[in-house]
Amino acid sequence: MHASYPVMAGDFTIAGNASSQIKRTLKQLDVPPLTIKRIVVATFEAEVNVIAHSYGGEVICDIEPDKVVVQVVDTGPGIPDLELAMTEGYSTASDELREMGYGAGMGLPNIKKNSDKLDIYTAAGDHTHITMTFMLGGA
Amino acid sequence: MAETLFHHTLAVRQDRCKSCTHCMKRCPTGAIRIEGGYARIDGQRCIDCGQCMSVCPHDAMVVEQSTFDQLLTYTWRVAIIPAVLFAQFDDQVTERQVCRALTDCGFTHLYLSETGVDILRTLEADEPEHDTPLISDFCPAVVRLIQLRYPVLLNNLSVLRTPAQMTALLARAELEAEGCLPEETGVFYITPCAAKMAQIKTEGSDDHAIFQGVLNLDSVYNMVQALLAKNKRRYGQETDGAWFHFPVFTRTAVQWSLVKGECPTNGARSLAVDEMHNVIDFLEQLENEDEVNIDFLELDACAQGCVGGILTVRNRFLAAERVRHWSNQLPQELPEELRQRILTYRGVLLPQIHTERAQPKSALRLDEDMGKALHKLEKVREIVKVLPGIDCGLCGAPTCKALAEDIAQSNASIRQCVVLKLKNPKELNSLSRIWGERTPATKALDPAATERHE
Q1: Nearest partner of B152 among B298, B28, B287, judged by Cα
Q2: Chain A contacts of B364, Cβ < 8 Å?
Q3: Which tens digit of pLDDT belongs to each residue from B253-267?
Q4: What is the distance between the alpha carbons of residues A56 and A76, in angstroms, rounded to a whole number?
Q5: Does ipTM come in above 0.90?
Q6: B288–A29 C-beta distance less than 8 A
Q7: Domains in chain A, ordered, with CATH?
């Protein structure tokens, strides 16, 4: 199953829309609760990243019998130092964002922790494309 | 995954049902369809919350009745009475008079259900490892809602036994110590709740093992009212007389069933949410969150908590006020003598203080096989695009999406869509060839859930 959800930059009121919709679909497919939780948490973090740090983008979800692949693609400006961004606690979030409760520097680390496989394409001045793969055990 | 066969207490009276779709639209688990001119309840999905009953304008939803006859099998007949029962009466009727009437109904021992709160506190019950926030397992409709719709949150659910169960266990232990034979002792729970009744009547359930029977709060109310009317003078003259076997309860205990009644007072952050649609909104939200700054969550399916229960008689706000008024006259601490009485049975009660963790129910899945489920999901998405999206309910399904799901599972046909039929009947024929007709025998619906009243 293939579905995509647009994510607008700067609109925190819609954070969680894409992950909620994916969650509803996964429940109908009877995916184990803990797997659903991992997918929802990772997707939510990625959604917030698009809203907070990019010019906007989309969440693309592909569900197959043995795995769920969630791609989050934005339109820039890319991450200058990916290794640093993957470090727990590191954040480039503005004071304003931190006041809203974001910017704990756990976004990418959390995504990595919750997904079975994580591929990231990014470059400063370009866009960011992350691909999270979640295996559906036993299938 | 082994799933227990749930006993259901709600049924449709076909002689009254006008297939008006009110119940179908209110049902929080999408368990109702209109078929052949009547509402039908899917036993796999129904959580016995009673929302359908409260919204039915034709009194066509009924709760299974239990008679007082069941008391006759036992020599010792224990009533576990919730504070909500007393709250059904106005201030003219004292707690003592209600107790007197219950004794005249045939009960030999009376216990207040909320005594269980004092038992749990005295035993310093702890909660095994769980996700935060901890969600109370007090409301049985909420527990079943989580099993069915929010399985991700099952690890947040409390596994503490409910106060009523603890009271029942204490009652049994005390009676046995007094020399009453266990097989001659029947413990009966009076409840305002259809979901609780369903639990007690489900064979193999925890509640089924603890309670020998259950009585509908409304029929007990009627019985008490009748006795009060008949014995007005006699009951009125008594100043002592019938009372609880465990005579004192704390303020906290009696307030338990009210909204916020369960929220801890020790500074932990807690939240109480009541009424089904609020509970659903909140659970949807909670499921998405990784971390929440709340330690404890009380969820009540009924508005105002148990005083808003489906089998209650009196206005829920007046009832809540009476419970609060009563509780304000009660002590904050349990008298030492009674504390000791609970501690006497510590050895019996403590090992039984926890229940098994609730397991997920998969009644909402499209198919057991992941490949087939995905295929059906694609089909649902295609069908939804064609349907009008106005959720009129005339097809017999609560929403256009629900109809699409029914079609994808061969439980319905696109021909049922009244709007499409009016717009373009020819197109409907070709669409139904693509997506198929409903299979004649609808397996999903439980015929036992529909009563026929001729």
Answers
A1: B287
A2: 27-28
A3: 999 989 999 887 767
A4: 8
A5: no
A6: no
A7: 2-135 (3.30.565.10)
